[in-house]
Amino acid sequence: MTTTTPRSLVGADVPAQAPPSTPEPAMTTSETVAALRASLGGRWAHVRERAREEFDADALLPDPSLTLEEQRARVAEQMQMLAASDHARGGFPVSAGGTNDVGASVTAFEMLGHTDLSLLVKAGVHWGLFGGAVTNLGTERHHREYLPRIISLELPGCFAMTETGHGSDVQSIGTTATYDPDTDEFVINTPDVASRKDYIGGAARDARMAVVFAQLVTDGADEPQHHGVHGLLVPLRDERGATLLGVTAEDCGPKMGLNGVDNGRLSFDHVRVPRTSLLNRYGDVDERGTYTSPIDNPNRRFFTMLGTLVRGRISVAGGAGAATRTALAIALRYAERRTQFAAPGSDAEVTLLDYRTHQRRLLPALATSYALAYAQNDLVAMMHDVQTAEKVDEVAQRELEALAAGVKVLATWHATRTIQECREACGGAGYLAENRLPALKADTDVFTTFEGDNTVLLQLVAKGLLTSYRDAFGDLTSFGTMRFVARQVAATVAERTSARTLAMRLVDAAPRRRDDEVDLLDRPVQLRLLADREQHVLEGLARRMRAAARPGADPFDVFNGAQDHVLEAARAHVERVVAESFVAAVERCTEPGAKALLAQLCTLHVLHGIERDRAWYIEHGRLTPARSKSVTGLVNAACEQLRPHAAQLVDGFGIPDSWLGAPIAVRPCPPSPP
Length: 674
Ligand SMILES: Cc1cc2nc3c(=O)[nH]c(=O)nc-3n(C[C@H](O)[C@H](O)[C@H](O)COP(=O)(O)OP(=O)(O)OC[C@H]3O[C@@H](n4cnc5c(N)ncnc54)[C@H](O)[C@@H]3O)c2cc1C
Description:
This protein starts with 29 loop residues before the first helix and ends in a 14-residue tail after the last helix.
């Protein structure tokens, strides 16, 4: 198995020598556009091409005129169409009829993000979460019995983890699965309203089975034994869709978006399932009720189980990226055609994209979309290698989980902000449902919450930075873990900061000059600014954490008091990693026109981030106020230089015209011949 350098998505691909400064792009050609598209296509570019040929816009784009029930019915039909194609098979083992090409499966899923996002989420819940849980938490008997019917959609399922009382804190859920040795069954029970499963995609209408996460309980000599959260397969409905005895399914009703998904609430009144329904890869119960697990530490077991489900998080990041690129394509196409006001003394009205503000609103977001797309491609490749390796590499798995969390956070927040900006950038036209932006906005909004709330996920990323996952499988709020974190921090940070990655060596190669001599267009200088910031924020956090280990200190208070710092450290880290992915992609590109464009775009992405955080760079002596002001000028210049290439950069996304589905997104007329 090939693993990448720790904490870097690109590892060895980072060049030893970066281009000096970004040359101004020449005129773009069709070769350039093709090269951009190939560059963004990544390792599974062929899967993207196949999706472009096969996904039919008429059948798969959302129809805003439908009622809630009609939307659900339409998405159910679309699911059948997807099942008939073999796009879903990649995510499943060969023994169960899959192809075990997990990278292909996540890439195909990402392409669905250009269509109806309800379909994306419904497919993600059934094949990704439900099928993924059976694959990764179950064993041979579950694979044999259920996976073929899951792949074919004969057995529609859902993933019931969240409860009304506990969402982010999954370890505290209240549903119980108690083993009854007399009947060799588990009894699934919802003890109170807070323990009701909530928001569950597919639960209101279509799912016939659920993977239910519950606290596993067995009989002990004197008192019940608690083994923590485990997943069990629980039938919900019969062939005709009627709920089974003891199961109550309620409908969450209309939502802000994603109304083609039937989210619901599930309660179980002492529902009995066979003992073999336990997904028993990480914990099993025998006929006598004896519990065994290959992982003794319950905390570590819990996080190992959750970790196997990382694909869902990576898929959400991919879907968010696709939706954002669709929104940008619509807004930029419109900005190339729409004119408002004429300059004094001129009859010709000004095209929106010729306004500096309009460039500022859309082009940095375009640059960041490229950056995140490269980071996503690297992440998917890393996931594929980790998950298809013959031997489990626990360290690589932890690295993957932390990076997946970080990229998901940046990609989904970027989606939320960018789609809103695109909506506004199209004025009133952006508000009309026919132009898709309202649905894109409403449907992607919750991506920041599901598959892990972004704020909570950033804490997970920071925890990975502060401690080695090898030793620390605790949740951030637990007293013991915090003490552990506090004790470990000094050592791990020292180790981390001395173990330089290849990218860091590139940064080290950057000449250290006085601030007024630094060339901010120099790639190593840009990377050093990001790396310095990451290191500084992390070291500051480590110092604060050390206080938690002092006698008399309350670790919770210390940790809670540093939460803003925790999030900052995680963000600085992931932003550095994403920038490195972009730098590596620029280096890999061989077509001169595309390479120059990507280099300029990469500069815009990095400098725009530095401009946003310039208060930090000034406060910490990394940039003088004068130097910081110059960043604004450089961002403006990059926008101006990229403006003539905006249409080609959008074409580089490779979104077929028919998939945009917005009347305002028609291509600008070619200039009339002189
Ligand atoms: C449309 C939709 C579909 C969904 N589909 C599914 C599904 O199919 N299956 C499933 O199991 N679940 C599903 N979910 C549930 C989803 O995963 C949860 O909503 C999510 O995990 C957040 O949990 P919560 O809603 O309880 O929010 P909470 O955990 O209560 O969080 C609320 C706020 O508190 C903040 N917060 C929480 N803890 C901390 C902390 N330690 N420090 C600082 N801030 C904190 C969060 O940042 C957040 O802003 C779905 C949700 C939605 C809305």
